[in-house]
Every structure is written in C-alpha cells, then in structure tokens.
Amino acid sequence: MNQQRNGAVPEQVDIAIIGAGVGGIGLAVKLRDAGFGEFVILERSSDLGGTWRDNTYPGCACDVPSHLYSYSFAQNPDWSRTYGKQPEILAYLHSVAQDHDVVRHIRFDTEVLEAAWDEVSRRWRVHTDSGDFAARILISATGVYGGAKFPDIPGMERFTGTSFHSLHWNHDHDLTGERVAVLGTGASAVQFVPEIQPRVARLLVFQRSAPWIIPRLDRATSRAERALIARLPIIGKGLRGSYYAAIEAFGLVGFIDKRFRHPYEAMGKMQLLCQVRDSTLRKRLTPDYMIGCKRAIFSDSYLPSLTKNNVEVIDDAIAEIREHSILTRDGVEHRVDTIIYGTGFEVPPAVQARIRGRDGQTLADLYTTRPQSYLGATLAGFPNFFTTLGAFGAVGNQSAIYMIECQIRYIVDALATMRTEGLDRVEVRKDAQEAFLDEVNERSARTVWLTGGCATTYYRTAEGKNAGLYPNWSFEYANRTRRFDRDAYELGATDPSPAHASVRTH
Known about the structure:
Elements: E1 11-18, H1 22-33, E2 39-42, H2 51-54, H3 86-99, E3 106-107, E4 112-118, E5 123-128, E6 131-140, E7 162-165, E8 179-183, H4 187-196, E9 202-206, E10 213-214, H5 223-231, H6 233-248, H7 251-256, H8 261-275, H9 279-284, E11 297-298, H10 302-306, E12 311-314, E13 318-321, E14 325-328, E15 333-335, E16 338-341, E17 355-356, H11 363-369, E18 385-387, H12 400-421, E19 423-428, H13 430-444, H14 448-451, H15 474-480, E20 489-493, E21 502-504
Parallel strand pairs: 1-2, 1-6, 2-3, 4-17, 6-18, 7-16, 8-9, 8-16, 9-12, 10-11
Antiparallel strand pairs: 4-5, 5-6, 13-14, 14-15, 19-20, 20-21
Helix pairs in contact: 1-12, 5-6
C-alpha cells in the first residue's frame, strides 16, 4: 500500500462517498439497510445538507411540493407548507440522518482535493485536507451544480459598494433604504426579489431574458391536515402520487411534442396578464422562447413584486460596472449601493476536476468534451466509481430526490452483486455507454430543450447538444435502474495474485 503524501499510511475504507447532501444521506441509509456498514462520507463543510445548508437567501424554498421532495422511505407528515422552505428542509435532512444513524459515518471539514484510481491496488486514492484514504469504491454525491457563477462584466472589481452572490448571502448587511441591483432572473432571484422588495428604497432588476413564471399555488398547511396525514399515511402517499403525476406531465412538453406546450404557456401568460396590468412592463416580462426550453419557475409573488413603485426592470445589456453604478449599453448610468448576483452556479462542480479515472482524465475533462455517463450512475474509464445525478441522470420534469433514489437503488444493487460474486472491479463497457449516449442524443434532437429558441441554458451545451437531461419519463428510468444490469459491465473477480484477471460476463 502506497503511503500518504506526508508519510502516513492512508486510512483503508471500503466505500467513500463525497458529499453529505441529499444524495449522500440517502446512500448512507440504503447502504446500511443492505448490510454495508464500512463506509465514510467526506463532507467539506462542518454540517450536512448540501445545497440546503449553503443557500440561505431570503425566501429560499423548494420548487417541488414537499411531499414529493422527500425520501420515499422517510415521509414527513408535518410539512408546514405545500413547498418547504430552506430551514425546514434542512431540519428534515438532519432528522433523517439522526434517525438512521448516518452522522457517525460523516467526516466533517474534510474536502476532497484529489481522487485517482490506482490500477495496481484496485483502490481509489483519495487525498483530502484532513488526511488520505484508500477506498475500494468511490461514490460522488455532490449534485449537479457547484459554486457561485459570476458574469464576465468589465469593472466588477471596481465597485466600492457591497456585492455578493445569492449563494453567499450577506446576512450582516442591511438592505433597508438602499438602492439595490439584482443581476439575473433565475430561480433564486425569483424567490428573493419579493422578499427584499419591501425593504429597499429602489430595486433594479437586470434581466437578460424573461423567465416563464407558472402559478405556484403555495399555502400553509393546517394542524388538522398534518394530524390527518400523520394518522392516515395513505393520504400522504396519495398527495405524493398526485404531485408526481402533475410534475411528470411536463415531460409532454420537454421531450414528447412541443405542441403540448400551449396549455402551459397559456397558464403562464394568464398569470402574467392578471398580475401585471401595465402593458409595457408585461411585454418586457413576456418570454421570447418556448416554455421548457429552460427551467420554468413556479412563483405567486415574483411578478406582483415587479409592479411596485420602487422596482424597475432593466433589459438593456450591462456595459460595465463602475465604482458606484452600473452602466448599460444604452448609455444610462444606474447608481446603486448594493449588487446581488443571482447568476447561477458552476456546471460541472469544481470537485469533478479533481476525480481522475483509469486513463488520467478527470470527470470535468470528459464533461467539457461531451457530457457522458451510463444511466447517470457510472462512467467508462472510472472503475468502481458511481455517481448520483450524473450526466443524463437528471430530468427536467421530476423531483431530483426521485431520480437520486433510483440511482441509489442501482448503486446498492451493484455493490451487492460485487459482494455476492466476489468481484473487486466493476466498470461499464465503453460500447454499452456509447449505445446509451446514442439513444439519448437521438431522443434529444427534437426536444424543446434544444429547439425551443433559448440563447443560453443549463439544458444544452455550447455546441447545441443535450447537456445532461434524461430525455424520457422518470418512471421509465426507474424501471431501467431497478436492477444492476451486469451484462453492461466489465467485471473483475477477486484474485490475490498480482495480476488481476478481468472477465466480461454476458
């Protein structure tokens, strides 16, 4: 066994999971259920929760109803609203981790700096800022999005006021009475704009393209409702099923036929008409692309907040940022005290540049060349490696937790197969992965994601290809990942001799 960089021997672990968010916690629960107790979760922060720990901006909430945005094995009858807010979701994740004895597996304040496959020992060498590990299995549960993404605008560093990204909300800074600029109109901005609008003197919303806004229909749940669901869990299951079907139906627009978009667009236009009476502003807030081309956003309060007297929507492009102002290309200088960047997240996450496979390429290298994986769960060239929400393992029309649970089931079954058959090496065959990617690309070609008229979107690459969405129904994906399909893999049997023989099974 090779020694750690500082001379110490790496800690031997059976399974190493990167990230203690929704994916990492769910994996831990199901690994324990399947009899895998020797694993660690490497978490860079001092707390669990992932995106629900990191995003604390005002109004932060889920955009999927809470009864669906939760683990199937840990249903919560006590959600206070239809859509859970960040503190409540984080508390839920804490409770699941405590109830299932997950916390003892987490190594907090342990950031993965590099992970590389060692073909000789058939182990992943994982280098962290808290020590090194040698793991038989490596699983990435870091999610789709990484750190804060900032726009490339001249003069950003010259601004002398306060500025921050929504991911790193400055709670110590009081916005009351200030002139505030919000850059971006994505999902985060749509949530925090209505929250800060009543407090600021002037709110300037810089919009590159108007998002499709769909009625959220959010409301508080009464004590009686929650008591009834707790007493009769079948009601909670019924709610979960109803929400699943309603959200799944968006797939009709995404990948079945763009003509199905018309009822959804009519819904968005009707809400816009009812909530924004000024025709000039309404025209500015009308999207110029098909719904579903980029992420549609559920909100009841965003559009009304833009009609207030202290709000101005600006769709002229920004030329530069100055010491106390933002200059748009029409020559107008807008004085501001604070700039809030609601400009999205890095894709892929930075940690993907630190995970190096059999041939020395990183996950980020492959993603940049062409998003690729097999079922969003494994990757050719990366033996004994699994991931949740990998490329083409996420959908645009379903709860992320639903998809994560599908991948967890698949991963745990793969590990159980390795245990049962005495395998020490599993790697998806390149031809199986290419067949999957060909299928994905063929199904994606006519989708609204690629042909809906969006200039920029997370849904497609710079070359106009599908950036990683699974172009089919989530229930079809669930059936496809129900069992580990061993015939798609190169399987290596455990062999104590120096030369490990790989066997392909059919």
